[in-house]
Design goal:
CATH class of one domain: Alpha Beta
Radius of gyration: 21 Å
Largest sheet: 7 strands, mixed
Order of helices and strands: HHHEHEHEEHEHHHHHHEHHE
Helix content: 40-55%
Strand content: 5-15%
Structural class: alpha/beta
Number of strands: 7
Low-confidence stretches: 1-9
Distance between the termini: 30 Å
Number of helices: 14
CATH superfamily of one domain: Vaccinia Virus protein VP39
Length: 319
């Protein structure tokens, strides 16, 4: 892990990084515990065409998963695509046994995998070390603009010439990211009851809420409303609950700054060809399935209003 110097700003950065790592450590445990949720994530990265690459581009390659977490689905997908070696990097060491155990549960040995403790903003590798470098949703959670730029430079530095860098930056705009999620995070930080609710959110809590609504309707209007408990649990499943925690618990979420123009500039300044946007329609079974078309179809006026340009994911080849 990066050793931060003494001082308020640096200690704030250290605490922010520690808090982010703790949040994702707990969230990723849920990914491996829920088969439906795990399979959804695995399917997302199993298709090489999504990365604008072929299976041959992965075969025997040396890759880096920077900010890997302990969810395991990405490593499993890469092994299935035939990579030669995977280096998994994240802060501290607490995540390592969880990731190892998850991979072992899926029959993946450690022969092709290396576990490294380190920071994306200060990578402990030589220049041009990897054929493909992946950074999935990491940059947005770093402390500030300077650290984001430094991390992008580091990811670029360790990518070999002719190799590829893939980054997920998030949705830089729209009502959801500009107003809705920030207001939820502010309320989470100042309201202890709401914080406890989010920290312990489960599908059963949504069932409890709807039961309360039904009782209230009967008490105030005499109406005997009904709802299907199974449907509520499906619409507000573990996948959705984890998503709520994802956008609420983390200390930093610098998505608005990481817009399309900034992304292109970062790639070009760091020696890459014009980046290509990676897009996929994510099939969901919970309530988010009704928002998926808007999230994907950024040319739709309602989509632009809610999500701006949509989720920005890019891959580019280093010159």
């Amino acid at each position: 892990m990066t050793k931060y110097k003494e001082g308020k700003i640096n200690m704030d950065r250290f605490r922010s990084a520690e808090q982010t790592r703790k949040v994702y450590l707990e969230q990723h445990k849920k990914y491996t515990a829920d088969k439906t949720l795990f399979q959804r994530f695995l399917n997302m990265v199993m298709d090489p065409n999504y990365f604008h690459l072929t299976k041959e581009d992965f075969k025997g390659k040396n890759i880096l998963d920077a900010g890997c977490g302990n969810s395991a689905y990405f490593e499993i997908a890469m092994i299935k695509l035939g990579v030669g070696r995977i280096t998994c990097l994240d802060l501290g060491k607490e995540w390592i046994p969880f990731l190892k155990n998850a991979l072992h549960d899926f029959g993946i040995s450690d022969k092709k995998i290396e576990y490294v403790s380190g920071s994306t903003a200060d990578l402990p590798f030589e220049d041009n070390s990897f054929d493909i470098v992946f950074s999935n949703g990491v940059l947005m959670h770093l402390y500030d603009e300077n650290e984001i730029k430094k991390a992008f430079s580091e990811l670029s530095r360790v990518t070999r010439r002719g190799g590829y860098l893939y980054v997920v930056l998030g949705c830089p705009g729209g009502f959801i990211e500009e107003e809705f999620f920030p207001s939820i995070r502010r309320f989470y930080r100042k309201n202890k009851v709401f914080k406890t609710l989010i920290d312990n959110i489960t599908p059963d809590i949504f069932v409890e809420m709807f039961e309360s609504i039904v009782r209230g309707m009967k008490r105030h209007t005499g109406e005997k409303a009904k709802f299907d408990r199974k449907t509520i649990k499906r619409l507000f499943d573990i996948d959705f609950c984890t998503f709520l925690q994802n956008v609420t618990q983390v200390p930093n979420r610098h998505i608005l700054w990481l817009d399309e123009k900034t992304a292109f500039k970062l790639f070009v300044e760091n020696g890459f060809e014009k980046p290509v946007r990676c897009r996929r329609y994510v099939k969901r079974k919970n309530i988010r399935k009704y928002f998926a078309p808007l999230h994907y179809d950024s040319d739709n006026k309602f989509a632009r209003l809610l999500y701006g340009p949509g989720n920005l994911e890019y891959i580019a080849r280093k010159k």
